[in-house]
Task: structure prediction
Amino acid sequence: MFIEVCKSKLHRVTVTGADLQYVGSITIDEDLMDAANIIENEKVQIVDINNGERLETYVIRGERGLGEIILNGPAARKVAVGDIVIIVSYASMEFEEAKTFKPRIIFPDTDTNRLI
Result:
């Protein structure tokens, strides 16, 4: 039996941009992606702490070191620049493997979105 578990989480990052006219997705600083073990095009769930919105999209690699968290396309309507969000990715694995799996959870500086 396979179950879905939390694989990675960026806990409490600040939205730095929202681009409604972009094709879609979320742009994440490459430093944050590396730290959280998230790859480009990976499906993620975005949870907005400010308004309770939850949405799913895929990741686009942002420029390293800028702290970018940008919601693109229709997702831009669900957040506001300055909102605090949690970004979660999941993985499917065998039940026994999931019992011992440890997710990568990152707590960046909320003001700058940089690693502490």
Q: What stands out?
A: The chain has one domain: 2-95. The first helix runs from residue 30 to 36. The helical segments are 30-36, 95-100. The domain at 2-95 is CATH 2.40.40.20 (Barwin-like endoglucanases).
